[in-house]
Fold:
Amino acid sequence: MKQQLRALQAEFIKNRHSKIRWVTFAAMSLAPLFGGVFMLMMTADGYEGLSGAFKTKAVMMSFEANWPSFLGLLTQAIGVGGVLIFGFVVSWLFGREYADGTIKDLLALPISRTTILHAKFIYYSLWCLALALYNLMFGLIIGFAVQLDGWSMPMFLASLESYVITTILIILLNTPIAFFALWGKGYLTPLGIVAILLVLAQVIGVMGMGSYFPWSVPGLYSGSGGPEMMAQVNEISFGILIATSLMGYVASLLWWRYADQK
Amino acid sequence: MNIIQTENLSKYFGAVKAVDQVSIHVKQGEIYGFLGLNGAGKTTLIRLLLGLIKPDTGTCMLFGKHPKQANKIWNNVGYLIETPHAYPRLSVRENLQLICKLRGFDDHRLINEITDRLNLGEYVHTKEENLSMGNKQRLGLAKALIHRPKLLLLDEPINGLDPAGIVEIRELLQELSEQQGTTIFLSSHILSEIARLTSRIGIIHKGALVKEIKSADLDEQIIMRLHIKTTNNPGAIEVLTDKGFQAQLANDLIEVSDSHAIDQPETISRLLVEQGLPPKLIWVFEEDLEHYFLRIIKA
Structure:
């Protein structure tokens, strides 16, 4: 436990001056900001205040200028945007040492490689949770600033449950990306994989098979595909997602421990 | 006790024999120099010793034990492999803090001690990305030395250092070996530096250990010849041969390999003058380390 704590503290030192951290928080600001603008436009003229794809989407999703719709939007931002942003975080954390050439400093130590890998997973989870919390808090500030209707604590808690579960699903889903960072010895390979998975998640989602494709599940669960698609998510979907996560974790662990580090 | 012991250690990357049946024994306090061309297998051997890659055949032991991951043995080992990378956005102090954290030390005096020792004191708050090449190398050495290891594995430790820095590091390593009994295994392609610093030299070529020699015996291995040029080289060779010298023509020069001739070239000069074949040129050729090295690997 003491070693785990030391490895985690080392992760905090490594990321002390990281610019990437602020980039991810800036990216996470976009959904609350644009969501707020979206809500303001609808507050004035309803759907008529919107145009083009925005209007189509709003009508399809039955969006209204109120708190339930706005909190749903924030959840969808995590469910879809999180795949990209959390994927970016995991690619950076697990691939950076290969890119920096510092990987050799982590491999011949009195501390186990597993402990170091766990520290990375913990730091990654904390980073993603902080992003999710920031997205929510910033959203709440925007929501109150534009004076949305329909606030109630039960409604908020119900939305929060969906928000938290979506966040956890996305966090779990990135263990295979961590493996690709280790296997690809850098952050470009996993970023490429994230991009491919994002496209596949959309295509497979549209084909109606999204509930069986792990990277579509969080988006569908968050409601980004509409209530019908959300209803397709079932125990099997969660089971596939958790199995994918476990496989990613085990593959990362085995690779990190046993593969040659040239 | 052998601090480093490898027996028939081999590592192949596809058809390439990166390390081929290498057996090395390095004793405590010894400075062992590992010499080879680029790509000869020096770095691969150090990676094998550190457990970063696994051998295909053979064994490797440090301090008499097979090194395993997460073993306390690693706090007795300091290492620097190839380019001394560090976290670019972290300062010198933060990079060293990180190493201390991973090695289980919290004594900040260690950081002050090593930065002072390696003349990094004025750069402790400078980010690694802003350091000069030489100071990056010093930071790499600081990371290897900060925990006062009993064994140092250094891959090209003087790369990027200026002449003053090279002398400084050489003195530091000699001091560690002589005063603290630190065993040092260092690889380099700079022969003169290896010869000055080490007590024993291993020459590796195409993955195989082709020669091991004590640095003190190096002089005996260096070829010396007396080179002569006259207006009639065949005639001069005949004269010298008649007098019992081993002389032969090589590239328009007469080469005499007898130690008596090499020690007293004036005798040869007088002999040739007396025979009407005065030398146009005469000098003692001494093989330098580069030639010695190339001769060994070609053999």
User: Anything to note?
Assistant: The domain at 222-298 of chain B is CATH 3.30.70.980 (Alpha-Beta Plaits). The mean pLDDT of chain B is 89. The first strand of chain B starts at residue 2 and ends at 13.
